């Protein structure tokens, strides 16, 4: 299939990229192209102009800042997979990244592109929500930050404005108890259900638990009922069982040709149980 006609620019600065976006409401940012180009080819998107970020400096790099790691929007999935900083400071990202497609796609697709795309089946939205990450954006009205809780608001929808560019994501490293769980038909496929859970081990218990679900639901979201359960006391096998039942009761899963709603509900319950048991070991 052929994409519709579009103009193409490759700005050399962030300011120039912002100017192009602000000048045309139908302009779109192009990062790794691993989601946008298929959408164009299938004629599901028809931007007037693509603003390619690949020559814009300052969107790369993975920087350890102590209590957080700052990841550039242009960092590829593959760079995350190979990063020692990520492996040591944010091992949940290392665990999740290998589930994203295949090495060829991971070599082109970017952390920022995936986050901005807000695909409920994407690994990064689920992981970033469970970690409580902060998004950094720039647009014609200046720079701003957006918390993950306020960023992912619907399927393929974030609170990033059409003329804004995601530049970095700041990911806290303080949530040292973590688990990432995915059920997929086979490695590299989009998941049927994703669960990410994190917390801060404190006095033999788990503090500030965050649990998120993706893929099985129309929009990535937190499982706040499960989080409340985890704050009740020490994480035990019985609590993991209760968390699984609570998760099953609190999701309204999607149905498609890959799995119906009831099947995905069972997957979510099973992944939450596994995640909580892993948190127990982490705490
Ligand atoms: P692009 O395709 O360039 O852009 C995607 C969208 O984000 C566009 O709307 C674009 O305008 C916007 N955008 C990009 N960068 C920015 C920015 N900095 N600021 C604002 N807006 C921006 N992903 C998964 O998570 N899991 C999978 O299992 C998976 N499997 C895949 C399998 C196949 C066969 C393919 C082709 C892709 C798959 N992907 C999967 C998608 C892949 O991870 C993409 O890399 C990712 O979704 C988008 O990143 P990108 O850099 O390619 O963004």
From TrEMBL:
Q: Which domain of life is it from?
A: Bacteria
Q: Which Gene3D superfamilies does the entry mention?
A: 3.30.465.10, CO dehydrogenase flavoprotein, C-terminal domain (3.30.390.50), Uridine Diphospho-n-acetylenolpyruvylglucosamine Reductase, domain 2 (3.30.43.10)
Query: Would the keyword Flavoprotein be found if you checked this record's keyword annotation?
Result: yes
Q: Which InterPro entries match?
A: CO_DH_flav_C, CO_DH_flav_C_dom_sf, Diverse_Substr_Oxidored, FAD-bd_PCMH, FAD-bd_PCMH-like_sf, FAD-bd_PCMH_sub1, FAD-bd_PCMH_sub2, Mopterin_DH_FAD-bd
List, for all copies, the residue spans of the domain called FAD-binding PCMH-type. Answer: 1-176
Keywords attached to this entry? FAD, Flavoprotein, Oxidoreductase
The answer to whether keyword Nucleotide-binding applies is: no
Pfam families hit by this protein = CO_deh_flav_C, FAD_binding_5
The name under which this protein is listed is: FAD binding domain-containing protein
Species per Swiss-Prot/TrEMBL record: Nocardioides furvisabuli
């Amino acid at each position: 299939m052929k994409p519709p006609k579009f103009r193409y620019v490759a700005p050399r600065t962030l300011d120039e990229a912002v100017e192009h976006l602000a000048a045309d409401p139908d302009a779109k940012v192009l990062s790794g192209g691993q989601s946008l180009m298929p959408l164009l080819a299938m004629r599901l998107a028809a931007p007037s102009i693509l603003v390619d970020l690949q020559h814009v400096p300052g969107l790369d790099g993975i920087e350890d800042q102590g209590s957080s790691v700052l990841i550039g929007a242009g960092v590829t999935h593959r760079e995350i997979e190979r990063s020692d900083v990520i492996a040591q400071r944010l091992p949940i990202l290392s665990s999740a990244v290998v589930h994203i497609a295949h090495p060829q796609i991971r070599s082109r697709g970017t952390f920022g592109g995936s986050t901005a795309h807000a695909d409920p089946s994407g690994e990064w939205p689920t992981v970033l929500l469970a970690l409580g990450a902060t998004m950094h954006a720039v647009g014609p009205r200046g720079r701003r930050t957006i918390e993950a809780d306020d960023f992912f608001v619907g399927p393929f929808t974030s609170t990033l404005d059409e003329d804004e560019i995601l530049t970095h994501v700041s990911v806290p490293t303080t949530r040292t108890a973590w688990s990432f769980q995915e059920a997929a038909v086979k490695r590299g496929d989009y998941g049927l259900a994703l669960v990410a859970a994190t917390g801060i081990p404190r006095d033999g218990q788990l503090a500030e638990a965050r649990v998120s679900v993706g893929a099985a639901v129309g929009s990535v979201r937190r499982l706040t009922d499960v989080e409340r359960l985890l704050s009740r006391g020490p994480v035990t096998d019985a609590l993991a069982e209760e968390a699984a039942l609570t998760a099953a009761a609190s999701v309204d899963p999607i149905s498609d040709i890959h799995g119906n709603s009831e099947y995905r509900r069972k997957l979510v319950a099973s992944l939450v149980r596994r995640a909580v048991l892993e948190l127990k070991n982490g705490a």
